[in-house]
Structure formats: C-alpha cells, structure tokens
Design brief:
heterodimer; A: 380 residues; mainly alpha; 2 domains; four-stranded mixed β-sheet; 4 strands; elongated; B: alpha/beta; Rossmann fold; six-stranded mixed β-sheet; 34% helix; globular
Chain lengths: 380, 569
Amino acid sequence: MTRPRQLGSFGRIAALARKEAKQIRRDPSSAVIVLFLPLFLLFLFGYGISLDAASVRLGVVLEERGPDARSLADAYANAPDFEVLLYPSRAEAERALRANQLRGFLVIPPDFSQRLHARGSWPAQIHIVTDGSQPNTAEIVANYSQGVLATWSTQFARDRGVASAPAISIEPRFWFNEDLRTRYNLVPGSIALVMTIIGTLLTALVVAREWERGTLEAVFATPVSALELLASKFIPYFLLALATMAACVAAAIFLFGVPFRGSFLAILALTAAFLAPALGQGLLISSAAKNQFVASQLALFSGFLPAMLLSGFMFEIESMPEPIRAITAIIPARYFVTGLQTVFLAGDVWEVLLPVMLKMLGLGAVLLFFAWRVTPKRIA
Amino acid sequence: MTAPLAIIQGASKSFAGMDRPALDAITASITAGRLTGIVGPDAAGKTTLIRLMTGLVLPDHGDVSILDANTRSNPGTAQASIGYMPQRFGLYEDLSVQENLDLYADLQGISAAERNSAFDRLLDFTDLGAFRARLAGKLSGGMKQKLGLACALLRRPRLLLLDEPSVGVDPASRRELWAMVRGLVDPETAVVWSTSYLDEAERCDEVLLLSEGRLLYAGSPQGLTARVEGRVFRVRPEAGAKRTVLQHLESDPTIADAVLQGDSIRVMTRAHDKPAGLSSASAAAPRFEDAFVDLLGGSHLRDSPLAAAMRMIPASDTPVIEARGLTKQFGAFTAAENITFQVRPGEIFGLLGPNGAGKSTTFKMLCGLLRPTSGEGHVAGIDLRRAAPKARARLGYMAQKFSLYGELSVRQNLEFFAGVYGLTGTRRRDRVTTMIEVFELGPMAGRNAGALPLGFKQRLALACALLHEPDALFLDEPTSGVDPLARREFWSHINALVKKNVAVLVTTHFMEEAEYCDRISLIYRARLVADGSPDELKDAVRDADLPDPTMDDAFIRLIERSNAEREKP
C-alpha cells in the first residue's frame, strides 16, 4: 500500500482557515456581529451616553434677594451649559430633583451678601446639591457650578477694584480636552470594547460551537494538530477583526468627528498587538468551556466586563483602589484604550505606544500558550 | 491467520460523576475482513470504546493499539490507519457536500491527483453525485450518514469506526447503509459498527456485547444465539387473552423470558423443555435478543403492583383519544396531513414512523401543545381547541428524554408533578408514597433525578405521568436505547395499566416496541399510510419472497407501496 503524499501542516491550516472563511460568509449572524453590533455600540457610546453637561437643568434657590445674590443667579442663567429654573425654597427644589426634573440645584443662603462683604470672616458659601444617582452628571454639574462661581467672583472682585477675589476654593478639574468633549475619549474607548467583543466573544463561540456540533471530534481524528487548529481559527478572525477595526476608525473620524492626530500605521500595529491577547483569550475560553453558553458567559465576565469597567474607558484607573488597579495590569483592553486615545487625540507618541504594544503582545503570548496547552487532541 | 487490526488490552475508563466505570477492563480485538458490531443499550460504553480506538480518549488502565501503534505513545500513527464517523456525523452543515469532502481530503493529506478519483468513487458509491452543491445541513438523515461515511472513507482506512450510524435513519435507508458498509469489508479492512438495535447485531460477523461498561460476550452472533437453541417457542393465545397469558408466563420461574410479538408470545424456557401447560407452543428460531436476555440472567418480572395503584376505568367503546383529520402546516411545509385515528379504553395504539415523519407533531396536537391548522383532537371527550388545559388534566405524558428535573430529588420530582396535576393534601402524599412503592424508588428517593441510572429515570418518569390516574397515557419513544430487561419491565407496567382500561398512545421508530401495540398506524411523510394490528401489517406484505416478514420488512414494503401510489398521476 502506498502512502499518500502529505500536504503538510500549512495545507491543513489553509484548508481549515478556508472552511472558516466560508462559514463566516454564510452565517447571517456574522454580518450582524462584525458590522451592525460595532456600529450600534459606537452610536450608543458616541451619542447615547455622552458625559458632557450640555443643557443641564439646574435649580437655583434664592434665600437672599440682594443684588449680589441676583447677580450670581444671572451668571448661572447666562452660562451656556445650564438651563436655570428659580425656586423660592429648598423644599421645592428638592421635590423637583426627586421628580427627576433637575440634575441639581444650588442654594444661595440668607447670609451670602453679608459674608461676601465681611472681610476676614468665613468666606461666602453657596450649597450645591446634585443627583448622586447619576454620578458622572453629578460630578460634572458640581465642577461646572464651581467654574461659573469662579468666573463670577473674579468679576465681582474686579468691579470693586480688589486685587484678589474673595476666598473661594476652586478645584480646576479639566486641564485637557478643553472643550470637555467626553465623546473624544469615549469613542476610542468604545472601539476597544467593540474589539474585545469581536476578538474574544466571537472566537470563544466559534470553537465552542464546533465542540457542541461534534465536528471537532471528526477533525481531531485526522492528522490535524492542536496548534494547527488554533492557527486556523486565529488567522480568519484576526483578519475579520482588522476589517471591523477599519470600520470603527472610519466611523470615529467621519461620523463622530473625533480628531485623528496619529497615523494609520500606528493604529494598525496597535490593533494587531491587541488582537493577540483578545483572540488568545477567546481560544482559551472555548477550549476549556466546550459549550456556547458557558463560553459566552466566560467571555462576558473575563473579557467584556473588564474591558468596560477596568480599562480606564469609563472609570479612571488612577482613582481605583490599589488591588483593583493591580488587576487592570492584566487587562489587555486597558493598554489598547491608552494606545487608541494617544493615537487619536495626541498622535504617534511612540514612547507611549511601544510599551503598551509590548505589554499586549506579552499577555497575548501567555494566553495563546495556555490555549495551546489546554486544547486537547483528546476529548475526555 | 492475519494479526488483529486493533487490540484492546484490559482497558478501563472512568468519568467524573459516574458511579461505575464507563468501561471496565475490556479485552478484545478487531480482525480485518470482518464486520464487528459493538452492541449494547445506551450508556453501555459503546461510544467510549470506539473513542478509545480513535485515540481521542485514552484508557485509565490498559492499552489500545491500532496496527501495533499504541494510542497513548504513538497516536499519530494509530490515527493514520483509521476512518471515524462520530455519532453526530462530524459534518459542517453550512458547507456543501463537495466542500465537506474537500476539507476532509485536505485534512487527510490527499493529493490533488488522487483526489478526483476518490471523490468520483465515493460520490458514486454513496449516490450523492447529484447533490454536490447542496449544503450538508439540508440533506436527509440517511444522506448525511452517507456523506459522513464518504468523508471517513476518503483515505481508504484499514479500520473504519462507525458510531451508531443507523440512529435517526429510516428503515429503508438503514438497510441501504448496511449493504454499503458490508461491501467495504475486504481482507485488508475491518469495519466496526456500534448499535443498540439487536437485529443489527445478528447480521454482524462478530459482536462485542457491552452492558454497563462490561464486555458480556465476544464472538460470532450465531455462537451466542446457539446457546439458547431449542429453548425458544412461540405461543398463540386465544384472542383477547394475550396479556393475561403473558403475565402468567412472566411470573413462571421455569420461563426465562416472555415477550409479546403481535398476537403471539415469544417464550424462552430456562431448560430445554417446552413450556409446561402450553400445548400450542411451537419451536421458534432463537434471536440475538433472546440470547442477550439469557446472558443477563433472564427476566424476573413480578406482577406489576401498578394495577392495584390505579382506579378502574369503566370499559366502553367510546374512544378516549380521538384524532379527526388533524393537519399541521409550518409555512409551506406540511408536518402532518389529515391524521385520523381513535384509541379506546384499554387499548395500546402505536404511531410508527421514522424521525421527521410527523409523529411528534401529531402527538403535540393531541396534548394541546400545538394548535392544528385544521381538524380536531379530543381526549376523554374534551375538545382540545376549547379546553386544552382541562384535557391535559386527564392525560399523562412521558417525554422521550424523560422531562425530569435533574437537580431535584426523586421525591421532589414526584411532589412537583403532583402539584402540577393539582393534587393536594393527603391525596398528594398518598399518591407520591404509592408511586415510590410501586416503582421501587424507595432507596433512591433522596437522590437527584439527574444522577439516576437510565432504568430508574424511566421508572420515575412513568411514575410522574401516572400520579393523577389519567384516562390516557402518551408515551414518546419510551424504550428506545434501554436494555431488553428494562424494556420488559416497562411494558409489564403498561400491561397492568391496560387492564385498568387506560388508553395508551405510543410513538416509536423502533420495531420491537411496535410489537407490543394492539394497533399501529404507519406514519410517513406526514401521512398515515397503513394501519392494523402488528400481525395484520405483517400479513399484508407476506408473499413467496418473504414468508415470515418482520415489522421492519412490513414497514419498508408498505412505504414503498405508498410512495408508488403518491407518484401516480
């Protein structure tokens, strides 16, 4: 009996990768996942949950009706970000806040003018009450209110020919992103989220599906090795993810008007580096889980949620407690968010980009190694 | 004498969560030039044994080698000689027939030059040439099996391993597949075919008979059936008395086995004597199943205590279950067309047909789970269109995979179903206690239903369906895949119910099960194509070529006739 000529490893990888490409093309849900879902998420983050304080309804309670108090109230009414509603008492303003008619209100207390003019005593005070159930908006309302107050008190001092403004402590929060356009930060951040879904969730599902349908059992009975199988899954989904990335970048620039100050080469290199851990994680999950339900749960918990919460996309890593900050070190999306924000908003700052790329590649190497070790050529 | 192709040496395999090994110290060999059947009920260890030979599973103890290559130390070489068709085909349903072949040709390393002749050979062999461009997911069950077989045969393996290839295939395609595989056996090649159908075992050259992970017998099927030669008889009781006679025989200690076969009873004695007191008994040829039952120690059935636990339903000629012109369409597809039949109290009625013929659809319409497009169904005189919940309270339903709650204990399952059927207070407690006693579930009452052995699951499922003493019992493939003793026990309970005039409706694709029915309707491609008692159906196809037809034969012939009629203009 003559032994047939072997096509070898590359032939088998190519055959499996071709098969994968055909399946992607024929599966109607892949178009949804690759194009519709990313754009939907970008719109959601781009338009839906903008963290800007444009046109916030703010209540003002005048407990004192002197000219200084009125002048301050006018300053708020004239500020572009606020729609001011006047209330005669705290109680009524509180009721409106509870009824969700206001994002916050400020109170000018009865002794406002007295304190303002009394040098050396306690500085003049106003109270700001914000809706803490929406912490982002609350913080922004508080900060904006302080900004308006700072402007007004400077003007007040100048009008009186006083060199320095009355003692009012101001904490300037927004040094960069001078327009306070959170969208500029959110869109690159949400691209990282979308790419985590494509990279990790999709890969986890497609391998688990083969376990479920029993096709891997037949494939494993052929000369295919675990490494070849992983490579044949990695390559098509790597290319697919790059296509999604291109769509995301185009949407960010042309639909959301996010400035793009870096180069396409930088973003390509960054994406490629990110896909190593993202796909590696997906492959590792699916090899361990072997069914689509468990795989999707694991991908959600270990991929999507950390990318959402711990990547610095929504919450600043610097303000997290130390142990959680330590965990973010192994979240690939964290580095991708930093890299993307740099390329979009700052440019090709290689001092920033190279370290994050190296870290992502390192994580990718570890995850892919484990995926290879865990993928059995056996089924028990 | 050629050396064996595969040698299994003291191989054991356990899986976490099982209270016994899946395979227990199996020693066997597979020889070239033979068709070897791995035979046994579900959970006997058939799939694990085949996977051991593919090298996809390694034994905990012992060794498996294929052509001297150990699957542990040398898996690549071992796998190079095998072709494997797993139970679920291993086909990519979203790839076409040709693309599946191309993929496996690439994976098996078949060169471009050899490829075309191999494809031509296999497409010709499987008759799939006309379907090259069709997606594998759109093929019929039989065609999928053939494509799976073609993919496994691409490289002309020395050892072809087929895991339950005849599951989900109608009887005609099953025979065709069998003939195809038979033709593959040559002096260089061995074929392994696993099955739970004992009639298939009879036709193998060699069998490995497994039960609960142990190898009960290895050798030719004739060698096994010869052991019960001269002990098998056929008894023909008077009309209407068959169940009473059967019950009498079952409790006779000199009888090893008694089982209904249409209007006759098949009897196996423990010694080489005619059964005492049955002058009408005539000798019958032993079958593999007889020998299997004998090997398991014969059946020891006591009178089912179930009869005492059920109320007597008055005998009457008014049907309990009635289907009148039931039709169900899903879009352009007709799943059931003009189905009409009646089941009277104390009657067992079977809907017999291959998977996808429309059995389940009919069943669901009669349980009120599916609304018919036209026609009507009645249970205990209640119109299912008007008062489905009321009708459901009068019927018991046992689903194919026993819809039990795996995480609840045996007792909790019973209590839950008692609650669902509206039993309360003392009656609920009494019925649950009675069912635990009747089905001997006492020692298991605290165990989770999911961890029960198959036979106990089946008992529990039946107990749950009978808590509320229904007028009608619906059974969906109740005993396919269970071992012959468990099947006998199950049907002894059903016989007890029939005595209390419960009407029983059974769906099955399994011919042995059909033999237990009083009347059968054959259902094929959404229509009823024939009905009658099992003996009437067999008589209808009896001719010179087929003097003693089996249910299988009757089924195939009647379907051929129906096809010929449908194709008439």
